[in-house]
Every structure is written in structure tokens, then in C-alpha cells.
Amino acid sequence: MRSEERSGGIGRLDRGLGRGPDRDYERGDVRIIVTPAPAEYRKERAFSYLPWPVKLVLKLGLFALAMVSVFVLPNYLDCRGQRDSGLFYHGMTVSACTRQTVYGQIGSTQKRFEDIARAIGSR
After folding, report:
1. Residue 117 has what pLDDT?
2. What is the residue extent of each domain of the chain?
3. Coil, strand, or helix at residue 9?
4. Do residues 23 and 17 touch, judged by C-beta distance below 8 A?
5. Which residue of 5, 8, 96, 115 could cross-link 35, Cys pair, CB 3.0 to 4.6 Å?
């Protein structure tokens, strides 16, 4: 072949036919060169080097953080606002208020689901 750098395509074998400057490239056997397509470059993420227990803890931790920020944080900020306004009775703390409002929110959500289940069951 004329070019040894070729990775695929159709090339002609030069089998001793007129070596030198007056070489005839049109003669010789045809060889089809088949190579796989080059692999697509994918950037590796640093997350892929972590062991599976660390990945699991990170995923569950991010989920727990999201749930806390959605359910607990608004109640906590509301209780802090009540404390700053002086609406707490003696002995009440921000953590107790937050716990009480979160439990109340969970209870009301459970009651709503039970009411929906009863409404569906009565049909």
C-alpha cells in the first residue's frame, strides 16, 4: 500500500509491480480494510470513581436533605418568627415548636389521605 497510516477503506496491494518512480499503482490486488468506528469520547465524572457505599450515602443524603428543606425548614423558620415576635408561652423552645408543627403537618396529611380513601371506598 502507498500509505501505511490508513485505518480503513479500500487500498491496493503493490506486489512488486514496477518498484521505483515509474511504479504502476493501477495494477495489483484490491484489499478492503475494515476497522471499527472510533469510540465516542465521554468525559468521566469524578462521581464514577467513588465506591458504591459512598455513592449510596451521597444519594440518600441528598434525598434526606431535600426532604428536610421542603418539610422542616418552613416550619422552623415560622417558629423562629413566632419566638422573635414573643408569641411563645413559657418553656416553649424553637425545636419543640418545630417538632410540634411537623407532627401536626404529618397528621393532617395522613387525615387527608384517610378521607380520600373513605371517599373512594364509599362509591
Report:
1. 94
2. 52-122
3. strand
4. yes
5. 8
